[in-house]
Specification:
259 residues, mainly alpha, 2 domains, 2 strands
Length: 259
């Protein structure tokens, strides 16, 4: 686990948490923090921590390229040493509630100052927050759909897939069977997850109609060449090919004639 991964995790989670609003105290819910006169209740803190873990697990999956189910993630957060990798263990340790508390305090202070300074009134900031809200909603929804899928791979399937991996790449021939089965399981799960993601997206495409404005030159807007330019180049290319075909080919040298 490198520093870039740690920074990406921290950065993404911090952005996600800025979207959590501070609401009023309610009922018998005790407050745990107070920023000036604003109280943060236990329920609010727990909700923020839950969001922190959710975003962290999502980013960890993206960075490592493997699915991390919620139970596995929670177990490593409680006991980071069990992961067996010092750097990765430190990442999981950062997700513990005690460490999150200090990060949460700083986040709240920054939020208060952002509101006080008028930072949130900036139209550019508003547009970014609007995008980030949609981004996190979409990703959380996808994670929720995928988390309901069964990801237990039978030993027989893992062994069979491991044999295929070894046939494709001789470098894996010396890898112990238990490690190979774990690699195979992860690969099977990743493939299933990818197929499931595509299935979810395709179902949504079937449910919702998305239309492009026929009067808007999307190709030019996206940075490509306008359709008129592309057509013109296509005609030039066709003319060039036609001219080359009309020219007689130069006969290949005949060794007997040259003699």
């Amino acid at each position: 686990m490198n520093n870039n991964l740690k920074k990406s995790l921290a950065g993404c989670v911090a952005v996600a948490l800025t979207l959590l609003a501070i609401s009023c105290n309610s009922g018998n819910d005790p407050w745990v923090l107070k920023i000036e006169s604003k109280k943060i209740t236990k329920k609010q803190f727990d909700s923020a921590y839950e969001g922190y873990l959710t975003m962290g697990r999502e980013q960890l999956q993206m960075m490592t390229g493997r699915k991390v189910n919620e139970q596995e993630f929670q177990a490593y957060v409680k006991n980071p040493a069990a992961v067996g990798n010092p750097q990765l263990a430190q990442v999981f340790a950062n997700f513990q509630k005690r460490n999150f508390l200090e990060q949460y305090k700083v986040m709240l202070l920054l939020n208060e100052e952002a509101k006080k300074s008028g930072f949130l009134k900036d139209n550019k900031v508003k547009r970014r927050l609007e995008y980030l809200e949609k981004y996190f909603i979409a990703n959380m929804y996808m994670m929720d759909k995928l988390s309901k899928d069964e990801d237990k791979i039978p030993d027989a399937d893992a062994v069979a897939f491991w044999q295929e991996i070894k046939k494709r790449d001789a470098r894996y021939q010396t890898v112990p069977l238990d490690q190979g089965m774990e690699l195979a399981r992860n690969e099977i799960i990743n493939q299933k997850t990818k197929r499931r993601q595509e299935e979810v997206v395709n179902n949504l495409r079937d449910q919702y109609r998305v239309e492009a404005n026929p009067e808007f030159d999307m190709e030019a807007y996206l940075g490509g060449k306008p359709a008129s330019d592309s057509d013109e180049e296509g005609k030039k290319s066709e003319n060039s090919e036609a001219n080359s075909e009309s020219k007689p080919e130069t006969p290949a040298p005949n060794s007997e004639t040259e003699k």
